[in-house]
């Protein structure tokens, strides 16, 4: 890998939480090992501040972090860093609703975004990390160097490129294609202002029952929506809340490791039964699965990983990704007052008649077809990972050139255990790394923020080793 230690650059494409964490940990590790002087770290991100990304750039106050603040930190070796920052800034003094009944803080997501940005700000101000406020649109590799074209017309030349891009937008279910151009279809509920045109009395169908659906419903209720909301998913599963009393993780799923999806599922069920017999809930069992998740995933054959992604993932998601108590309360109140119903159903057809959208639903339990007339249909089915390579011009160009391939599990981009991107010819490229959730097909549990922080440390460490090797080679050649 030809690199000039006197004019070398690491380009991090994407400056949301993942990209910001990689930049922070890379600079920390380079500084600790004395390799920071000759290397330039550039983060390509159009947003004004690094660290916010899609998740933490929202200004909606009802959008809360989904775990208590003491489990959120950009520094894995300092798990209380965010909590300490909250205490130092006093930022929650004006937000009494941030606290759960037991006193645990669940700040608005924008607050966590401010925290993450604050940890990068000193490095940017000192010129140790460069923030290029633009978007990467293409990347080509020639003579071992990456040329990253950007929207502002000024390319970045880099020795190492890190893909820390965000999730793709949801893929529109094919059955909704007939209403694709209707004003009542909200195809991406996470886009800014997506719900602005929902009127207070609108009848709303939410397609999906996960965290995004919960955010949508809580947001609508907070803004005075009083119309009927129907939220559907194939199994009718709804995101679970947090336990009132926390316990240490319960269960060992590694000794020995499960080698099939069915074996793992049976083991989890048996462990939950044992936990309940001891007076515990399922929560500490799922916490143990989460903590051991990457090693559990590593032990499974690819075929079994596919089975989990296809069949078990919906159950995992609603138990693993729990909603903040404030959001849970908003949904419970809406159900109690009769303005929200959660159904196990799927869309069979969709058509429009003027301003009205006519949706045919098939009930999972009875098999009956129901006709639902609504004013808005909101799609919250989660990122369309199957179409990730076509979701951004940058990724499409890299895929067309053979630098990127889809992970066989369909959960993101193909990479090895060092996060090196694997090309369509099956070769790992140590100059192109995948950081964050888009690497979860290889690493497994890589959606929660603690795991993303740990993965950022891993990626930064791998790059630091590469840089150290190149610096030593340069020093040896100079003697």
UniProtKB/TrEMBL annotation:
All residue ranges annotated as the FAD-dependent urate hydroxylase HpyO/Asp monooxygenase CreE-like FAD/NAD(P)-binding domain in the record: 11-167
Record Pfam families: NAD_binding_9
Domain of life from the UniProt record: Bacteria
Record-given protein name: FAD/NAD(P)-binding protein
Organism: Ochrobactrum teleogrylli
